[in-house]
Sequence to fold (91 residues):
Amino acid sequence: MKNRNEFDRRPTGLVQRIQRPGDRWTAYQHDGLGNVIRADYYDDTWETFCYDKNGSLIETENEHVTVKLKNTKRKFLIDWMERIKKSLKRN
Fold:
């Protein structure tokens, strides 16, 4: 059993995958600017990330929730749009 993390990188140096002990891993996809646009996990969960033309994060989503960040002059407002899936109804 491995006791350390292993990193798979693209020739550009961007991390494509992190392999952790216990057969746990995270795989990453990047856009042309090197921003992470998707992360997939060993447990079949995932996250996506969207950026504006300046490379600032404007939205992130997973199987449970979408978070939109809106820039205002005073602060960032977070607009939560919860999307609970049937798989969460375990109780």
Summary: The beta strands are 6-9, 15-20, 24-30, 36-41, 46-51, 57-62, 65-71, 76-82. Confidence is low (pLDDT under 50) at residues 79-87.
